[in-house]
Amino acid sequence: MASEIGIFFLAGFETTGHSGAWLLYLVSQHPEAEAKICQELDQHGLLVTADRPKPRQVTYDDLAKLTYLDMAIKVCLPPKADLQAA
Length: 86
Prior knowledge:
Layout: H1 2-28, H2 31-43, H3 60-65, H4 67-76
Helix pairs in contact: 2-4
């Protein structure tokens, strides 16, 4: 049982890593999306700039305000099968 829990735990990290890498790749291929994400982060003080070498820490409230970044993340997620009970 403990080994199965370990496998699920590690598999979650791998999936998250792949999703993050895919997001970064897709954003790098679309400069207009990258610019919008950077603008949104800058508006909330979360982007490193010459005037702000150390951005403030992200809070949970910030996550709700980052709507364009949220949409970009959701686009990168793989489609899910409908898991409703029949």
